[in-house]
Amino acid sequence: MTTIRNTVSEPIPFEASDFLNLDRLLSDEERAVREDVHGFVREKIKPNIRDWWEQAVFPREIVPEMGAQGLLGMHLSGYGCAGKSAVSYGLACMELEAGDSGLRTFVSVQGSLAMSAIHKFGSEEQKKEWLPRMARGEAIGCFGLTEPEAGSDPASMKTFARHDGSDWILSGRKRWIGMGTIAEVAVVWAQTDDGIRGFLVPTDTPGFSAKDIVHKVSMRASVQSELHLEDCRLPSDAMLPEAKGLRGPFACLGEARYGIIWGAMGAARDCYECALEYSKNRIQFGKPIASFQLTQQKLVNMMLEINKGTMVALHIGRMKDEGQARPEHISFGKLNNVREAIEIAREARTILGGNGVTLEYPVIRHANNLESVRTYEGTDEVHTLVLGQAITGIPAFR
């Protein structure tokens, strides 16, 4: 007679944020990266972010600490970069954005845009000159693609670089450029007689100037700028030799968009955890509001979307590490996760009632920040049309 053994293990306790126990899908190294960044955010960012955001201050002093954590260009290899996997980088972005979108944006601009452009398309001399210092946080970079009249359509940019002997003369304007006023080097994309090319422009170059975009009610602990280039003379070796056409900037934007897929879920998780804790302690009609059916429905919907969005991020990250992720996959993640994160932030605000519009809680700050995240690195409309073309085979941009 065969004995049937009961192989059912003890049930795993449900975690409020990781309901599906996605943590078990991570390697020990990936968990270690996440915990390190989580601790960094808890100690360095969360105690200060309310004041930084309210006062519109980007804490430049934290940049070398980010470098020491290996956060700057962490998915790049060599030249002082950490060489971590796409999943590890994504987990870092999630934890950073749970602190604030602006701080994750800095890491994204520095590593996924400016450093990535140099790493992918620069000469060996350019890589050696800039990447080690940028990885340590000793030099800050920015990425000049968007213009006042060329946002979703970068091919229509008016910034132009012309030859003058062996030099380049660069003129034009860029807008909504992260870190523009505090950068030591700007990666600037410009039209030339030979198509769109990228240039490394030290920000002390005569003719280069930058000014902050002020009066923002979003991303206040971050720097967004307008760049002005008036006959900036650059040597011939200022051009990124391996980038020609929009393939160059688009490859860098793909790296930044990937980080957003994870980061948006970090902001959403922070809103959800705040609302969950608040609902357990807020007493109305003689009992916690967490006991009411409508509140539980809101919390459950948040939990569902955070777990689904994190699964999307992890799956795309695994695909990226295997070399299988296409730009359309990145568009899928960016469109879905940012859209859902905004809805979670708004719903969390309703649970907090009037208290939800104060900076005593992180929810309204995340909600405002995510409005910017929704727009930059491709609007909902652009990513929708990317996906529409992918499934129909018909382009709808023009």
UniProtKB/TrEMBL annotation:
PROSITE patterns: ACYL_COA_DH_1. Its EC number is 1.3.8.6. Pathway: Amino-acid metabolism; tryptophan metabolism; Amino-acid metabolism; lysine degradation. GO terms for biological process: fatty acid beta-oxidation using acyl-CoA dehydrogenase; fatty-acyl-CoA biosynthetic process. Its cofactor is FAD. GO terms for molecular function: fatty-acyl-CoA binding; flavin adenine dinucleotide binding; glutaryl-CoA dehydrogenase activity. Keywords: FAD, Flavoprotein, Oxidoreductase, Transit peptide. It comes from the Bacteria. Pfam families: Acyl-CoA_dh_1, Acyl-CoA_dh_M, Acyl-CoA_dh_N. This is glutaryl-CoA dehydrogenase (ETF).
